[in-house]
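Q: For a teaching session next week I want to show students how multiple molecules come together into a single three-dimensional assembly. I've collected the sequence lines for a complex. Could you give me the predicted C-alpha cells for the whole thing so I can convert them for display?
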Amino acid sequence: MSGDRMKSKRKILAVFAHPDDESFICGGTLAKYAELGAEITLISATRGEMGRRMGNPPYVNRETMPSIRENELRKACDALGIQKLIFFDIRDKMVEFYDSERLIERIGELMEELRPDVVLTFHEIWGGHPDHCAIGKAASEAFRRKRLEGALYYISFGSAMEAPERFGYTKRDVVKVDVRKHLPAKLAAFRAHRCQTEIDEWVWLPDKEALERFGGYEYFLAQDRERLPLVLNGFFDT
Amino acid sequence: MNNINKQKLLKAFAVFQGQEVYLHSEATSFIFVRNFKVWLEEAMIAGEGPFRVALRFDQVGWLRTEGLTHYEATADGKLLLAGYDDRGRMNVALQLGKEPFPE
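A: Of course. Below is the structure for the complete assembly, covering every listed component.
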C-alpha cells in the first residue's frame, strides 16, 4: 500500500492493557492506517491507574490517576486518529487475575460485532508486562475461537524484531511498517500522555529534535503466517 | 498533593483515629493492598522528611510506611499520603478513608 486510500473501509481492533500502549509501541502504525482511512477501535483493559509516573514534578495521585490517564488517552486517540475507545474497567496490574474465560468472551463479543480485518495485541510471552501478556493471551484465544476472517498480529518493542530468531520466529513472520511520515502524530500522542512522558526530557525537546529519537519502522509478528497473503510492508494487501 | 507538614498531618490523622477506616497501602513497584478495613487506634509520624508513618490498629496490628513526602486531605474526606522521588515517580502510598476507595 503506497499511500493510496484503501479500496474498502478496513477495520483494525487494538486490544491493549494500558493507556499509552497504543502510542508508545505502535503509534506510528495506527496513525498511518487511520490516515489511510482505516477505522480503528482501541480496547484498553485498564486505565493505567496503578502507574508509577505521576508527572514531573508530580501532580497526579493514586485516586486522580484513572480520570487523568483516561483523558490523556482520549487526546492521544485524537492525535493518532483512533475513533473508538473501549475500557474494560479492570484494575491496572490485575488483568492476569481477571477471570480469563470472561475476558476471552468480552473480547470475542467485540470481535464478532466489529469484524476487524486486523487485530493487534500483545504477544503472550514477549508482552513485557503481566497485564500485557494476559490481555494478549485472551485476545489471541478469542480470535482463534471465533475463526473470523482477517489476521492477528502481535505488537513488538522498538526494532527487536529485526532479529526475530531470538524470539523463536523468522523474518517471514515479521511485518515491518514504515511510519516515517507519521512520527509527528506519534510525538503528539506521546505528549498527550503528559504525566507518563514528562520524565523523558527528549519528548519535550523542539519537535525536530524529539522526532529524531523515533525509529522509522514499527514491527509486528503474524500469529499465523499460513493464513495470510504475504505482505511485506503493511497489514493489507489491497 | 502538598509537602508534608507534620503538625498539619497530625491534625488530618486525628479525624480518622478511634474508628473503622479503609486503607490503601502500596510499595508501588512491589505490592498494593486496597480497602482493608481496620479499627485505627493511633497514627504516628516520625522523621524530618521524607517521613515515616505508623498506624496502630485492632490492638495487635501495625502498618509502617516510610519514604512519604506528600499528602492531601481530599474534598471527599480521604487522606492521601505518597512518597515521590525527585522525578515525580511514586515509591510508596498510604491512604485512609471512612468509605471504601473505588474498587
